[in-house]
Structures are given as C-alpha cells and as structure tokens.
C-alpha cells in the first residue's frame, strides 16, 4: 500500500463515508473493541480519526489514519480496522489536540501504520 493511501478510505468504502459523520461509531479491531470515534479530521491531506479508548488504554485517545478502516456498518454505527488492539496501542502516542495539525506527528503515525504487515480481508 502506498504511504499516501494510509490517509484515504479504501475505494470500496467511498460511498459509505461520503458526507458521513462517524462521531460516536464504535471502533473494533481484529481482536476486540478499541473505543469510539471522538472526532474525525483532515489536516494537511491526512484524514484520520481520534478514538476515545475509555478505560482500555487508561482513558487515552488514539489517532487512527482512515486507511486502516476495513469496514463501516452505518446501521450498527460500527467501523472495523484492519489491525489488532496491540498494534493500535503501540502506535505513536497521541497527547494533545495540536498534534492532529502537526505534519511531523501525522507522518510518524502514517509511517507506523504503513509498516504494519498486510492483512487478509475479513469481509467478502
């Protein structure tokens, strides 16, 4: 996957996410729930979700590039990412909202997710 595509939804999801507000959607990894979408943003052409993990990661939020979103179910208000919980937890730490506008931080996050091993699709 080219590094640029980590910041874009998969083409198959284009019709689902067009004008869709994902705030409040439950975020599920391959091995369990991560949290819920607190907000979505697009800074410097780097689309991402800020996910509130609740107590799972001690109340910490995580930044997830939209390119790892594997499936979206608007009816159940749920989205699935293509990695597991440990991989999401090990991503560069999200500390402050200003980081969502910091190209260096966003690049580090994108590079981390881009380097994860490819996964077989769980859908279809």
TrEMBL record:
Signal peptide: none annotated. It comes from the Bacteria. GO terms for biological process: photosynthesis, light reaction. It comes from Streptomyces capillispiralis. One of its GO terms (cellular component) is plasma membrane light-harvesting complex. This is PRC-barrel domain protein.
């Amino acid at each position: 996957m080219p590094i640029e595509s980590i910041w874009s939804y998969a083409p198959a999801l284009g019709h689902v996410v067009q004008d869709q507000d994902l705030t409040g959607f439950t975020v599920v990894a391959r091995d369990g729930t991560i949290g819920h979408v607190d907000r979505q943003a697009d800074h410097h052409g780097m689309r991402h979700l800020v996910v509130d993990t609740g107590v799972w990661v001690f109340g910490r939020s995580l930044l997830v590039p939209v390119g790892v979103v594997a499936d979206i179910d608007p009816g159940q208000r749920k989205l699935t990412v293509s990695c597991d919980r440990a991989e999401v937890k090990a991503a560069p730490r999200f500390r402050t909202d200003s980081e969502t506008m910091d190209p260096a931080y966003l690049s580090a996050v994108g590079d981390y997710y881009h380097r994860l091993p490819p996964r077989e699709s769980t859908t279809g």
